[in-house]
UniProtKB/TrEMBL annotation:
Signal sequence region: 1-32
Keyword list, A-Z: Signal
Organism superkingdom: Bacteria
Designated name of the protein: Nitrate ABC transporter substrate-binding protein
Signal is among the record's keywords: yes
Keyword Signal: yes
Lineage: Bacteria, Pseudomonadati, Pseudomonadota, Gammaproteobacteria, Pseudomonadales
Pfam families, A to Z: NMT1_2
Database matches in PANTHER family: ABC TRANSPORTER SUBSTRATE-BINDING PROTEIN (PTHR30024:SF2), ALIPHATIC SULFONATES-BINDING PROTEIN-RELATED (PTHR30024)
Length: 340
């Protein structure tokens, strides 16, 4: 299916998101203390960044530290685009899944030393299908296509590989990769709802998975909480250089995230309003609030249960360096204090 037809369907169902590709973000030179450029992707999992942006929390904590901070925001789709932007110097903070984090941590180990700054919370991700014949991952065939943000790199791709390894053994971990295609969440959701295309699967995230499931033709094939237990699928990461050369800006960012997490966890209604206001999402507030109020959701900067995926990726050869624990791929900051 062409990009144009995907975008038309996205507009038709009112998902209303603009897509910026990695090519739009121009490389930039290293800058002095007092500037931070942040890349986010799509979905409720980035709500903490929406709160930070809406309440100007980085600027607030910067002023408390005696500096004025200029914050630039951009939106990308897929871990590959985000990782490329970070390594090119186009952004300072990358928002992506644990899969892209572990890939870039491994590749920059001993060089740029990219590590995670914080989690964005704990959320179940659903693998969906509109094909009634697909009940489990074993039912996908060459006639199916599964949308993921970035083939082989995104956390959704890694979750699918993890599930395949459990189903068929580690040697077959990438068995379903040939069925995956890179499509942004809004477009994939529109295609799944509309039907009539080869795209019959989508490894999604909230609220897109919930919007798709409102269609009776769409069902859940796999829940990542069933696969791994409660976990933090999405994180923020940066280079060691940025952290060391911009300590006040970096600290203001971490403090802003912590404040945003406290706000979102304690006031789900205000969090829902923030998401709609900042993203422009065409979603009913009551529907969104019901999604956010899911007891399985936890807005927290402390990572949870990320290490099983790291151990798996090393075991199958997706990363060369084996982390001893989650602390190997997270910066050792005062926040978060604990994790897994």
């Amino acid at each position: 299916m062409s990009r144009i037809s995907f975008n038309r369907m996205a507009a038709a169902v009112g998902l209303g998101f603009s897509l910026l590709t990695g090519a739009v973000v121009a490389p930039a030179q290293a800058h002095a203390e007092g500037e931070i450029r942040i890349a986010e992707q799509f979905g409720i999992v980035y709500l903490l960044l929406n709160v930070v942006r809406d309440q100007h929390l980085i600027e607030k904590h910067g002023k408390e530290a005696g500096i004025d901070i200029k914050v630039d925001w951009t939106q990308l789709s897929g871990g590959s685009a985000v990782n490329d932007a970070l390594l090119s110097g186009a952004i300072d903070i990358a928002g992506a899944g644990v899969g892209p984090l572990l890939t870039i941590w491994d590749r920059t180990h001993g060089r740029q030393n990219v590590k995670a700054v914080a989690s964005l919370g704990n959320f179940p991700y659903y693998l969906l299908s509109n094909n009634p014949k697909v009940k489990t991952i074993a039912d996908f065939t060459e006639k199916d296509r599964i949308a993921v943000p970035a083939v082989g790199v995104s956390v959704q791709s890694r979750f699918l590989q993890y599930a395949a390894a459990k189903q068929w053994g580690d040697k077959e971990y990438n068995r379903l990769d040939k069925y995956t295609i890179a499509v942004p969440h809004p477009d994939a959701t529109a295609a799944l709802i509309a039907g009539g295309t080869e795209l019959s699967g989508h490894f999604s995230n909230p609220p897109f998975q919930d919007q798709a499931l409102a269609n009776p033709n769409v069902h859940v094939v796999l829940n990542t909480y069933d696969l791994l237990g409660p976990n933090s699928p999405t994180v923020l990461f940066a280079t060691e250089k940025f952290r060391e050369e911009n300590p006040k800006t970096y600290h203001a960012f971490v403090e802003a995230l912590a404040e945003a997490a406290d706000f979102a966890q304690k006031d789900k209604g205000a969090a829902a309003d923030t998401y709609i206001r900042v993203t422009g999402a065409k979603i009913d507030r009551a529907v969104l609030l019901k999604i956010i109020d899911n007891p399985q959701f936890e807005f927290s900067i402390t990572p949870k249960n990320t290490y099983p995926l790291a151990e798996f990726m090393h075991r199958v050869g997706a990363i060369k360096n084996k982390p001893a624990s989650w602390q190997d791929y997270f910066f050792k900051d005062a926040k978060p204090l604990q994790g897994s």
